[in-house]
C-alpha cells in the first residue's frame, strides 16, 4: 500500500537528480532521425522555460494553454508551467477554430504554446490577436510571438518549486459527447494520488517503455504516459504520424500500452486485411501452431513485448478481448472518467470475468445509488468544473461522491458491471426503456462493423446505425455484397434472440458516412457523439422504420 502521496514535481526532481543521464523522451524528427532527451535535459529545458514564464510577471495560477499533438516538448512545457506556478490548459490538436476560441476564452488563457498540428491554418483564427503564442521546437508553419529558443536563452531556475497538494495543476476540457466541453479542475494532489497508487498496482518501473499516441490532453494519456513516466521512470516514445504509427510501435516495442476500443479494433482489422479472418481464427485454435502464430501476429504489430495492455474510455466488445487472449495478449479493461483522473476500476491480470470490468482500485469507494447510478469517491475526485458551480453541484454529491452517469451493479467482491448510461437510455413509442450500449457491444463483434449507434427514441423498435469497416466497404463494392448482407442478417438474428422483446432491433441501417473526428461525428477520443448522429439521421427514421427490413443501405 502507498505510504505517502508524492507530488508530481517532487518526483520529477528526484529522477532528475538520481539518474540525470538516463534516456527519458524519444522524439521522431522531420528528417527521419530521433531526438533523445535525458531526464537532465528535460529538466534543463523546463527550468529555462519556467524562468522565462516568471519573467512575464503573470499572476500566480495563470492559465497557460498547450495546443499540440503529442511530442516530447508537450511534457517539457507542462513541467515548465508547473514550475512557474501556473496552471496548464491542454487543448485537443484537432479542434475547430470555434472550439479553440471557446476554451481559450473560458479558461482566460494568458499564453498559448503551439506545437505539432495537422491543420493549424484552420485553427489559428480561433486564437485572439492579443494572445501571445510560443512555437515549440516541432510546430506548424505560421506566425508566432515567440520561438522556443527565445525561452531557452534564459538561465534555468535553481530552486525546486513545491506546489501544495490542493493547488490547481490543470484544467482538462472534456471532449464533449453531449454538448459544450466543461473544464475539469485537478490539483497536484489528485494527480499524486492516482499515479502513486497506479504504478504500485501494476508494478511499472524504469525498464518499461510506452508509446504516446493518443492525445496527451486526454486524461487517460496524461495519466498513463506523462504521470506514469514521472512516477515509474519509464521511457516515453512518441508516434510521428498516423502513416508511421505501426513503424513507431515496432520501434518502441512498448512493454505497457493503453488504447481505446477503436484502436484495438483497428489493430484487428489491420491483421484481417492481410489474412482471412476465418483462416486465422482456425489456425489460432490449434494448440502449438496457434501460440506460434499468435506471437508472430503480435510481433508484426509491435506488441510482442507488452506486459500490461489496457483498454478504456468506452466499453470494449468481449469478443475483441477474447481474440487478443487467443493471440497471447491479455487486454485488461479499465474504467474511469476525466473527473476522477481515469482512476476507478481495472480488471486484474488473470481475473477476467465475462461481462464485468473488474475490481475498484486502491483508495476508491464505490456505491450504487437508488436509481442504479455508479458513484465513486477517492483522492482523485476533481475540485470541480472551472467557473461552473451549478454543474459541479450536479456532478458531486453532498458527501463528495462523483456521479458517473453510468448505470451498473457490483458483486460482493467489489467487481463492477456497467449496464448502460442513465442519460443515454431512450424510450420507444411503446413506452419501454432501452439501454443502447450493451446492444452496440454485441453488434461490434462483427469484423465488418467499425462503428455502431443504436437509436429508437419514439420508434416502435430500435434501429442500429452501422458504419462498415474499410474491408466491409470494399467487399460491398467488389461483388461480395450478398455474402456480407447474409452475414449481417445472421448476426442480427442471433442478437435479437438474446434480447428482450422491447429491445429487439427492427433492422440494421448501413449508413454512407464514415464517422470521424473531422466531420464532427466522433469526439477527439473517438467516442460517438450521439446527439450529432441523431441530428444527422433522425429525419430518415420514419422511412426506415416503415420499410420493416432487416438490412437497409442508406441511399
Automatic annotation (TrEMBL):
UniProtKB keywords: ATP-binding, Nucleotide-binding
Enumerate the spans annotated as AMP-dependent synthetase/ligase domain.
15-386
Q: Which reaction does it catalyse?
A: a long-chain fatty acid + ATP + CoA = a long-chain fatty acyl-CoA + AMP + diphosphate
The record's annotation in PROSITE patterns points to: AMP_BINDING
Give start-end of the signal peptide: none
What's the short name of a Pfam family annotated to this entry? AMP-binding
Q: Which Gene3D superfamilies match?
A: 3.30.300.30, N-terminal domain of ligase-like (3.40.50.12780)
Q: Which InterPro entries match?
A: AMP-bd_C_sf, AMP-binding_CS, AMP-dep_synth/lig_dom, ANL_N_sf
Instruction: Report what the protein is called.
Output: AMP-binding protein
Q: Recall the taxonomic lineage recorded for the source organism.
A: Bacteria, Pseudomonadati, Pseudomonadota, Gammaproteobacteria, Pseudomonadales
Amino acid at each position: 500500500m502507498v505510504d505517502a502521496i508524492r507530488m508530481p514535481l517532487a518526483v520529477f526532481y528526484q529522477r532528475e537528480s538520481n539518474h540525470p543521464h538516463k534516456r527519458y523522451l524519444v522524439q521522431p524528427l522531420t528528417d527521419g532521425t530521433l531526438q533523445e532527451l535525458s531526464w537532465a535535459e528535460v529538466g534543463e529545458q523546463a527550468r529555462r522555460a519556467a524562468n522565462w514564464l516568471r519573467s512575464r510577471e503573470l499572476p500566480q495560477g495563470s492559465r497557460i494553454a498547450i495546443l499540440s499533438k503529442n511530442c516530447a516538448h508537450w511534457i517539457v512545457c507542462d513541467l515548465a508551467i508547473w514550475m512557474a506556478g501556473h496552471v496548464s490548459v491542454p487543448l485537443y490538436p484537432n479542434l475547430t477554430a470555434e472550439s479553440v476560441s471557446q476554451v481559450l476564452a473560458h479558461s482566460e488563457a494568458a499564453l498559448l504554446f503551439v506545437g505539432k498540428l495537422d491543420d493549424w491554418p484552420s485553427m489559428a483564427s480561433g486564437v485572439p490577436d492579443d494572445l501571445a503564442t510560443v512555437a515549440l521546437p516541432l510546430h506548424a508553419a505560421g506566425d508566432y510571438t515567440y520561438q522556443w529558443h527565445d525561452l531557452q536563452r534564459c538561465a534555468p531556475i535553481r530552486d525546486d518549486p513545491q506546489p501544495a497538494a490542493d493547488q490547481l495543476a490543470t484544467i482538462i476540457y472534456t471532449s464533449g459527447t453531449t454538448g459544450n466541453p466543461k473544464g475539469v479542475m485537478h490539483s497536484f494532489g489528485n494527480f499524486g494520488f492516482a499515479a502513486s497508487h497506479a504504478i504500485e498496482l501494476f508494478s511499472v518501473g524504469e525498464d518499461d517503455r510506452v508509446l504516446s499516441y493518443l492525445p496527451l490532453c486526454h486524461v487517460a494519456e496524461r495519466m498513463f504516459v506523462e504521470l506514469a513516466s514521472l512516477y515509474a521512470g519509464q521511457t516515453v516514445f512518441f508516434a510521428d504520424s498516423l502513416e508511421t504509427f505501426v513503424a513507431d510501435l515496432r520501434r518502441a516495442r512498448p512493454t505497457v500500452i493503453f488504447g481505446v476500443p477503436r484502436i484495438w479494433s483497428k489493430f484487428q482489422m489491420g491483421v484481417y486485411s492481410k489474412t482471412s479472418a476465418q483462416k486465422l481464427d482456425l489456425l489460432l485454435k490449434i494448440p502449438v501452431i496457434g501460440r506460434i502464430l499468435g506471437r508472430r501476429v503480435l510481433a508484426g504489430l509491435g506488441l510482442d513485448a507488452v506486459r500490461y495492455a489496457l483498454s478504456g474510455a468506452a466499453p470494449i466488445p468481449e469478443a475483441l478481448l477474447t481474440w487478443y487472449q487467443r493471440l497471447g495478449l491479455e487486454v485488461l479493461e479499465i474504467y474511469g472518467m476525466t473527473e476522477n483522473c481515469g482512476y476507478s476500476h481495472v480488471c486484474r491480470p488473470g481475473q477476467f470475468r465475462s461481462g464485468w470490468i473488474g475490481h475498484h482500485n486502491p483508495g476508491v469507494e464505490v456505491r450504487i445509488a437508488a436509481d442504479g447510478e455508479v458513484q465513486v469517491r477517492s483522492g482523485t475526485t476533481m475540485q470541480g468544473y472551472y467557473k461552473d458551480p451549478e454543474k459541479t453541484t450536479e456532478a458531486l454529491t453532498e458527501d463528495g461522491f462523483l456521479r458517473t452517469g453510468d448505470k451498473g451493479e457490483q458483486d460482493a467482491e467489489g467487481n463492477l458491471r456497467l449496464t448502460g448510461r442513465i442519460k443515454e437510455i431512450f424510450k420507444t413509442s411503446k413506452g419501454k426503456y432501452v439501454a443502447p450500449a450493451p446492444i452496440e457491444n454485441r453488434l461490434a463483434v462483427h469484423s465488418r462493423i467499425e462503428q455502431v449507434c443504436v437509436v429508437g427514441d419514439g420508434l416502435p423498435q430500435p434501429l442500429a446505425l452501422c458504419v462498415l469497416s474499410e474491408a466491409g466497404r470494399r467487399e460491398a463494392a467488389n461483388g461480395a455484397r450478398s455474402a456480407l448482407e447474409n452475414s449481417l442478417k445472421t448476426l442480427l438474428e442471433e442478437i435479437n434472440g438474446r434480447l428482450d422483446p422491447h429491445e429487439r432491433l427492427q433492422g440494421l441501417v448501413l449508413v454512407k458516412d464514415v464517422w470521424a473526428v473531422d466531420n464532427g461525428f466522433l469526439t477527439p477520443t473517438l467516442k460517438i457523439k450521439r446527439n450529432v448522429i441523431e441530428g444527422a439521421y433522425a429525419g430518415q427514421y420514419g422511412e426506415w422504420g416503415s420499410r420493416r427490413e432487416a438490412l437497409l443501405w442508406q441511399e
